[in-house]
UniProtKB/TrEMBL annotation:
Family matches, as SUPFAM superfamilies: ADP-ribosylglycohydrolase
Coiled-coil ranges per UniProt: none
Name under which the protein is recorded: ADP-ribosylglycohydrolase
Ranges annotated as biased composition (Low complexity): 109-119
Disordered: annotated segments: 76-119
Entries under Pfam families matching the protein: ADP_ribosyl_GH
Length: 474
């Protein structure tokens, strides 16, 4: 029996109950009705439960999803989704490029709010290639252990002498009983363990930057959310989408228009999907974090709201600042933090994670404390804990490439997406592909697999050239 993941109403309801508690709604009465009817919890790690619910439970779940959506949130004022309201709640929102002084390398809190000039084009092509490679490397490192619990990731790495992480995961030497307890990710093991990597395999963490490259080629930096939606309908196979992106696809086909596509029966609207689409918005606005954040916002609101949108804006602004080559990782993170509403849950999580990473020498302890704070209440794909972990990894590694991707993946949760985001920023900061260790680059063979348009088999040098054209387009 085909059980399509991430769309079954009886499974969505459990996720929406959790999301309601997180975003300041009171779902107790709705939850009581669901439990009284025999409604199940949401699958903890899979996208769909094993068996179909009764017709009654399915119809009830649809009704309750709509009822939950109508509940008021006590966080509504502090966590808006509309861009102008977001800006009004960001006291250090960066000025447009060219209207102020670049941020200094000091770590003063005001530095993130000043504008930065666009990066000189001479450095940018090599830096963009390093960023594409860094994104791929971090993603590939995290692919085989995606969905595994933290203790499983640590045990598998320790079994081969690869802890703390210094290279790709391998199955060689791992005891059979450990693999039975913590099996590699089913979709990824055949192409992402050290012994069988042969180029960069397909992954949505690379597909979305490719889609957004296509978006910019067709529409330029003034694209609209409707342009994103049309591109997806034309170029993105629904089976290659997950969570919020799959539900937005479904909503578009049902005749629901953006930005309502992000809200209609979509409990994943604060998960990590918009963040993994943000890189191109930063790469195409070097030195202009305000423009990068605005661009990321227009993309993100197709599928996400509030903190899910802020995570994408944070990432885009940090990347735009890193692209200049003039700022350390801490200034980049401050630039990202400046576009996140000050009283939002993501702002608090970022501040906590950066402070924890700055003040704690052992990164395993940083990870343990982040998990103690967020794991019980948040799904492992939720944007808040994952974005916090990315910021912690980059802070603790001081922007070093290997240290950043290894820390991001070793922290668990959405391992491939976290590794990809950290690798993109750290790769930009490294500035050139040659600055990335050969043990990471060589297995990729300058080749990327994808179903997006005509990009299958494209080299990272070519992708950097195409991205540079968009970054420097008038």
């Amino acid at each position: 029996m085909l059980r399509l993941t991430w769309v079954q109403p009886e499974d969505l309801l459990g996720h929406e109950l959790r999301q309601a508690r997180l975003d300041g709604r009171e779902p107790a009465a709705v939850e009581a009705r669901w439990r009284a009817a025999g409604g199940p919890d949401a699958p903890e790690r899979a996208g769909a439960s094993a068996s179909r619910a009764s017709r009654y439970l399915r119809l009830l779940a649809e009704d309750l999803l709509d009822e939950l959506a109508d509940l008021p949130s006590r966080f509504a004022e502090d966590e808006p989704t509309e861009l102008e309201r977001i800006k009004s709640r960001c006291p250090d929102w960066p000025a447009p490029a060219g209207t102020g002084s670049p941020p200094s390398r000091d770590r003063g809190p005001a530095a993130a709010g000043r504008a930065v000039p666009r990066a000189p084009s001479g450095r940018l092509p090599a830096a963009l290639e390093a960023a594409w490679l860094g994104r791929a490397i971090g993603c590939l490192l995290g692919k085989p252990v995606e969905k595994l619990p933290l203790d499983g990731i640590r045990a598998l790495a320790k079994a081969t002498g690869n802890w703390p992480l210094t290279g790709y995961f391998t199955a060689r030497g791992v005891p059979d009983d450990l693999l039975r307890a913590h099996p590699w990710n089913r979709r990824s093991a055949a192409t992402s363990l050290a012994e069988n990597i042969d180029g960069m395999p397909e992954d949505d963490d690379l597909d979305y930057p490719l889609l957004n490259l296509l978006l910019l080629q067709r529409h330029g930096r003034d694209f609209t959310t409707d342009d994103v939606a049309r591109l997806w309908l034309e170029e993105l196979p629904p089976g290659r989408t997950f969570t919020a992106e799959r539900l937005a696809h479904r909503n578009l086909l049902a005749g629901i228009e953006p930005p309502h596509t992000a809200r209609h029966r979509n409990p994943f609207r604060e998960w990590i999907g918009a963040l993994i689409r943000a890189d191109m918005h930063g790469w195409s606005n070097p030195g202009d974090p305000a423009a990068a954040a605005g661009q990321a916002h227009r993309d993100a609101v197709l599928t996400h709201t509030a903190n899910g949108v802020y995570a994408a804006m944070f990432t885009a602004a940090a990347i735009a600042t890193a692209a200049t080559g003039d700022h350390d990782v801490h200034a980049c993170l401050r630039a990202g933090r400046a576009v996140v509403p000050a009283r939002s849950r993501l702002a608090r999580a970022l501040d906590h994670a950066v402070r924890l990473a700055r003040d704690t020498s052992d990164f395993d302890e940083v990870v343990d404390r982040l998990h103690a704070r967020y794991a019980a209440d948040h799904h492992w794909v939720h944007a808040i804990p994952n974005t916090a972990l990315i910021a912690a990894a980059l802070t603790h590694a001081d922007g070093d490439f290997s240290g950043s991707v290894c820390r991001a993946v070793s922290g668990g949760w959405d391992t491939d997406s976290n590794g990809a985001a950290a690798g993109s920023i750290a790769g930009l900061l490294a500035g050139t592909p040659d600055a990335l260790p050969d043990r990471w680059r060589a297995p990729l063979k300058n080749r990327l697999a994808t179903t997006v348009a005509d990009f299958d088999g494209t080299g990272f040098d070519t992708l950097a050239h195409l991205t540079h054209l968009e970054a420097t387009r008038p």
